[in-house]
UniProtKB/TrEMBL annotation:
Enzyme class per UniProt: transferase
EC number: 2.1.2.1
DNA-binding found in the keyword field: no
CC terms in the record's Gene Ontology section: mitochondrion; nucleus
Family of this protein: Belongs to the SHMT family.
UniProt cross-references to PROSITE patterns, sorted A to Z: SHMT
Organism of this sequence: Varroa destructor
HAMAP family referenced in this protein's UniProt entry, alphabetically: SHMT
Modified residues (N6-(pyridoxal phosphate)lysine): 320
Protein keywords: One-carbon metabolism, Pyridoxal phosphate, Transferase
Pathway in which this enzyme or protein is active: One-carbon metabolism; tetrahydrofolate interconversion
PANTHER family for this protein: SERINE HYDROXYMETHYLTRANSFERASE, SERINE HYDROXYMETHYLTRANSFERASE, CYTOSOLIC
Full protein name: Serine hydroxymethyltransferase
Length: 541
């Protein structure tokens, strides 16, 4: 091209399109290559004043830009940069895209029975992948350390409002913080807020169905950070029944004098007696905190007792039975806590403590895309369909437990009140790790789990099974009978391999013939069954 030709071409372009407000402007890639993406776009946009880029489409030889006049516009820096920002994942990073698709396929083809997992809705996933992930917003609504948070404030306030409403809480009596990144940080933030360093807490012991964050430690090591920074004393279950020993809890609390008692579970299949917990806490002047991470969806649907009547603080995750994104939430009481000997009211001061501990104490900017997802999940939890779902979750768990007992398995506590089926495999002669492995090989995902009396979390005596994810996919009671059959067949294969190998069962032995073929055949049978059911979310993602 001769010198000056480019100016003539653009003058011609200007003449032909000067009156075309709102029209589609086709700019050839040849022109873009001459002027550069920035120069060509700026020149085109100057025809219409302040314009907004509405949409771009790529053809073989051209780039089509759609313009609307008199609206704000952010220009793309260059063709190379725009390619990085607008290309799909399969083009930008085929490796990650392939792994995500493989994981989606695994979830679709298998039976997800990990009690702490669920399949969230498409609407929640859309929040997680939205523009909200771009915004930084340290602080709280109306008190941010950054500008541009007017809509972020509205989202967080709406999430708080829905959280209180779904559990029927009076805003004058309860407050809620929706910024914790997940359940474990939420728990630690509560401890930091109400228990002084090296203050005393009591939680259900891990082998008895408690959670790591409730203060777990062993003789040799303090496992949880909770047991490192605070003094932890576990309470236990009855070794015969597997039920929490409330009498022993009361005696231990009277001796230990904890600042905080935790009523919470990770693998306990029975309802908690919050009224009894409250009496014990009152007897020693302790705060009572409920960790309802596993049962928050059941509580919302009134399928499990509510902790709010008796507790000072309630924490939860939002991705288990509540079926939202992976996040955490803290509810705290407001108003009068008690009265002193002179009749003077002693007020709760938990709101400021919790807020200060979450931010700036232990976190920075909240994950706004996740908070939006929590808000959506809470809205869905208020619908009648959610109540039906939770009823089916419990019914499925009870059917599964009953079927396993009928097949000769020991279910801890003899059954379940919630979504958890806790299986003790020691009478079968198989540990939880090997059971988890064989079930994984036949496309049933569960987790090895300690049972009462266990000494090692790495080599436990049982497995934990859950029904929320399968229920989301539409499995009902009759399906649970088939699932129990699949589980039994998998365990039987593992026991046969163990017998054939003189009582030993190593990881590599699962790959030996003739058992390898048997496992593959069972895997194909399970996958054919599981693949029939609905899967929420984005296809292939």
């Amino acid at each position: 091209m001769k010198k000056g030709d480019s100016s003539k071409k653009f003058a011609s372009f200007k003449k032909n399109h000067a009156g075309g407000v709102g029209k589609s402007v086709r700019i050839s890639c040849f022109v873009l290559e001459i002027f550069g993406a920035m120069r060509a776009c700026r020149a085109a946009f100057s025809l219409y004043g302040r314009c907004r880029l509405l949409h771009t489409t790529r053809a073989a030889n051209s780039l089509v830009i759609y313009l609307r006049p008199k609206e704000n516009l952010k220009l793309q820096g260059s063709r190379n940069m725009s390619s990085q920002l607008i290309d799909q994942l399969d083009k930008v990073d085929p490796e990650i895209d392939d792994l995500i698709k493989k994981e989606k396929s695994r979830q679709l083809r298998g039976l997800e029975m990990i009690a702490s997992e669920n399949f969230t809705s498409l609407a929640v996933i859309q929040c997680l992948g939205s523009c909200l992930t771009n915004k930084y917003s340290e602080g709280y609504p109306g008190q941010r350390y950054y500008g541009g948070n007017e809509y972020i404030d509205e989202i967080e306030l709406l999430c708080q409002k829905r959280a209180l409403e779904v559990y029927g809480l009076d805003p004058a009596e309860w407050g809620v913080n929706v910024q914790p990144y997940s359940g474990s940080p939420a728990n630690f933030e509560v401890y930091a807020a109400v228990v002084e360093p090296h203050g005393r807490i009591m939680g259900l012991d891990l082998p008895d169905g408690g959670h790591l964050t409730h203060g777990f430690f062993t003789v040799k090591k303090k496992i949880s950070a909770t047991s490192i920074f605070f003094e932890s004393m576990p309470y236990k279950s009855d070794p015969t029944t597997g039920l929490i020993d409330y009498d022993m809890l009361a005696k231990t609390a009277n001796l230990f004098k904890p600042r905080l008692i935790i009523a919470g579970i990770s693998c306990y299949p029975r309802h908690l007696d919050y009224e009894r917990f409250r009496k014990i806490a009152n007897s020693v002047g302790a705060y009572l905190m409920a960790d309802m991470a596993h049962v928050s969806g059941l509580v919302a649907a009134k399928m499990a007792p509510s902790p709010f009547e008796y507790c000072d603080i309630v924490t939860s995750t939002t991705h288990k039975t509540l079926r939202g994104p992976r996040s955490g939430i803290i509810f705290y009481r407001k108003g009068i806590r008690s009265t002193d000997a002179k009749g003077k009211s002693i007020m709760y001061d938990l709101e400021e403590r919790v807020k200060q501990t979450v931010f700036p104490g232990l976190q920075g900017g909240p994950h706004n895309n996740v908070i939006a997802g929590v808000a959506v999940a809470l809205k869905l939890a208020a619908r009648p369909e959610f109540y039906d779902y939770q009823r089916q979750v419990v019914s499925n768990a009870r059917t599964l437990a009953k079927e396993l007992v009928a097949r000769g398995y020991k279910v801890v506590t003899g059954g379940t009140d919630n979504h958890i089926v806790w299986v003790d495999l020691r009478p079968k002669g198989l540990n939880g790790a090997n059971a988890e492995r064989i079930l994984e090989l036949i496309s049933i995902a569960c987790n090895k789990n300690t049972v009462p009396g266990d000494k090692s979390a790495l080599n436990p005596g049982g497995v934990r099974l859950g029904t929320p994810a399968l229920t989301t996919r539409g499995l009902k009671d009759n399906d649970m009978k088939q699932v129990a059959k699949f589980i039994d067949e998998g365990i039987t294969i593992a026991l046969e391999i163990k017998t054939a190998n003189n009582g030993t069962l190593l990881k590599d032995t699962f790959n030996q013939e003739p058992f390898k073929s048997t496992i593959l055949a069972k895997q194909q049978e399970v996958e054919a069954y599981a693949s029939k059911f609905f899967m929420p979310g984005i296809p292939d993602m």
